[in-house]
Amino acid sequence: MKQYIAKSEEKLIDLQKQIQAKDNTLQNTQQNMSRSEEKLIDIGTKIQAKDKTDQETMQNMTKFDDDSKVKLEELQTNINMLQNETMVIESKSIRSCKDISKIHSAKYSIYVRNDTLASVVCEDAAFGGGWIVIQHRFNGQVDFYRTWAEYRDGFGSLDGEFWWGLKYLHWLTSARKYELLVEMKDYNGSYGYARYDRFKVGSEAQNFYLKVGNYSGTAGDSLFYSQNMEFTTKDSDNDKTKRVQCAEYHHGAWWHNYCTFANLNGPYTDTPAAKEAMFWYEFKNDNRPMAYTRMMIREIDP
């Protein structure tokens, strides 16, 4: 019996030791879990701090980008203002396309009278360059059947078809000597030009009368009949004939006499031998319509 009790006590002591070992293991596990939890909290805190730092960095970068954009825009504005001021200063000495070097059919601004600036297209390739384009037609997108005021002030777009303006022609040609070049091409692709060694337009009070000099070229002289003639539009009849109003008859404003041998401001049409068409009679001795016309003037060296 005593032996049985002794063995039971030994088993009980062994069981207590096992329970104590498990308690120690559990305690160690809890301690490790606690330390892991602390580490996780620390990592989370560091991540939050990093996120906050990254957010602040992004905000600073965005603010820097915004500030840089504003400063860049201010710089570009100042550059543009400086360029405009420089152009105005330079333009004060520019009175014709001959004063502008190294250009190729570019738009520019010149002084046409005192402090009056006007935009022009300068042609630098054809016939030695230095030409101011005063009329250009090539696709019929601009209606040229216009009033006196429109022909006086100009219309259309310098990037497309246009009439520069009679008042500008008067201001330039009354102050300095100019020559005239007229280019044309028919619907068959035949090209011709007419060049006049003098070109002058009178004032509006003189109805913008025309004076041209000696002719040379390949298109024939169709301006001989317009010499000293006043300009006529659909609403201002200054031609010589009483039978018809020539601008209405030909549907084109021009320096009409008893009407005209040239109608370069007439309707853009390919109708053969039409009185209402862009024609230059002496080109082929008929009223064949033109597909392309360009009129240009150039200052003559004194």
TrEMBL record:
**What are the alphabetically sorted keywords of the record?**
Coiled coil
Please spell out the taxonomic lineage of the organism that makes this protein. Eukaryota, Metazoa, Ecdysozoa, Arthropoda, Hexapoda
Q: Which residues form the Fibrinogen C-terminal domain?
A: 88-301
InterPro entries to which the protein is assigned, alphabetical: Fibrinogen-like_C, Fibrinogen_a/b/g_C_1, Fibrinogen_a/b/g_C_dom, Fibrinogen_C-term_domain
Gene3D superfamilies xrefs: Gamma Fibrinogen, chain A, domain 1
Q: Which CDD domains match?
A: FReD (cd00087)
**Residues in coiled coil:** 5-39, 65-92
Q: Which domain of life is it from?
A: Eukaryota
Query: Entry's Pfam families?
Result: Fibrinogen_C (PF00147)
- One GO cellular component term noted in the UniProt record for this chain: extracellular space
- Kindly provide the name given to this protein in its UniProt entry: AGAP011225-PA-like protein
